[in-house]
Amino acid sequence: MSQLSELLPVPDEASRPFFDAALEGRLLLQRCAGCAQAWFPFRARCAACNQGSLAWEVASGKGRIYMHGRMHQIFHPELAEAVPYRLAIVELEEGVRFLTQLVDAEPERVRTGAPVEVIFERLSEQVAIPKFRLR
Amino acid sequence: MPDPLRAATAICGLGLTEMGPVYGRSATDLATEAILLALEDAGMQKRDLDGLLINAGVSGGLGLSLASAAGLGELGLLNQMNSWGSTAGAMLQFAAMAVHHGIANAVACVFADAPLEPGKSSGSVYGALRSRRTGMSTLNGAYGNFGPIPWYAMAAQRHMDLFGTTQDHLGAIAVSTRAWAGMSPHATLRSKLDLEGYHASRWIIEPFHVLDCCLVSNGGVAVIVTRADRARDLAQPPAYIHGMGQAHNIDPAGLTDSAVHTPAKHSGETAYRMAGATPADVTCAELYDCYSYTVLASLEDYGFCKKGEGGPFVADGNIAPGGALPTNTGGGQLSGYYMWGMTPISEAVIQARGQGGERQAPNDLVLVSGNGGLFSHNATLLLSPHAA
Description:
The structure holds two protein chains of two kinds.
Chain A: H1 16-23, E1 28-32, E2 38-39, E3 54-58, E4 62-71, E5 85-92, E6 97-102, E7 115-122, E8 128-134
Chain B: E1 9-16, H1 27-42, E2 51-56, H2 66-69, E3 77-80, H3 87-100, E4 106-113, H4 122-127, H5 139-143, H6 149-163, H7 167-181, H8 195-200, E5 203-206, E6 208-209, E7 219-227, H9 228-231, E8 239-248, H10 264-275, E9 284-286, H11 292-301, H12 310-315, H13 332-336, H14 342-353, E10 366-372, E11 377-384
Parallel strand pairs in B: 2-3, 2-4, 9-10
Antiparallel strand pairs in B: 1-7, 1-8, 4-7, 5-6, 8-11, 10-11
Helix pairs in contact in B: 7-11
């Protein structure tokens, strides 16, 4: 369990399926039934074809680092122990980008294009969040 | 045949309030003062102004009611606009089109903000902006992703990984910008800075030191746009608008390499076309430097060097005092003052007028760039002291 309290994510109705799946170790994205475009984060209507209905889909959880950085600044007191931590935007195999934290990352291997996979970190009884590690 | 908008309009007035950690004044009050200063600068009366475009920052309170707070009369044009850091440039473009077509005669474009409070760190002002308390966006807090800094830092790291850009290259921008700031009476940070001092400054998020990040400032800036023939009869040398362009990269699915390829490319091409100019004609550049890296990416996308070669370009001293392309000659947002898109515009007006004093750069064609929204929005202006 983490030290987060104020920074604990709070699911709302729209994001409930995502957070419920994360508790079970699955990463959800959306895919348009009309044009097959994958989406993250979630939306009410496909922004590509503007038509199709969007359905949840379990993502591969595999991708590559699109970009990354190592945070030193303590932007919130609950992160005082966490710095420095690595942020990244990961491009999933499905083609969507996902902002996340990288964990267990050996510095010399953290590079744009490096292959990563999802893991899930339990933050509380109710909340788990996807993070990524090098694979 | 040249574009009918080329040099058809000009900036005739510039008003800068005190800027920096100046406390106790609202954004509306600062905006009002900036407008009055711009009118005085232009040699105009308040009744001469019949248009107002407003760009509010983050502190709130600045809106359409500014027109009545400032006691303006009947207006032919009034709006509050937002495309983040490109807003100011965009406002000038809409103002230019309005005066060219007779919708208004003289339009004030104003930015003002007062996010700083005594005892509050400037990082917390933008870092603490969290739009929602529930839903997917609350993941950001759990990841420790606050404000725009992480995105731009990671974008810089991608540029480094792809092209071999180095920390020294980013540092060269901070150092050069500070050297310019030392010659500007408006700049907040004017002490000498070398690469060693840059490397010694604390990390915010690698690869950004604190000196890769802009200041946060309280203050206001206004400029007045009018027709070129009117501007010639006013108090200041006109800064003619030779070219303008915008580009907005709408990429909901994240399909473009938006961290490296910015909308400055398309925005710049549109502006060059209107001005009948090429990058080689630009003698001085005022680029939106919310971070050191945005300068690097902008230099490439405006065609001053090839994509990926921005690092060596700045390390060779091109943008520094004495360089081939004097850039951010007022100290930019890194060392000068953070008035969003009005930072590069205000310095460009000073340069185009030839009023830069010891920091005056060759001013035949001054490129001004505003970008914002994580490289989503860009506005370009090409200014010149020449009427044609």
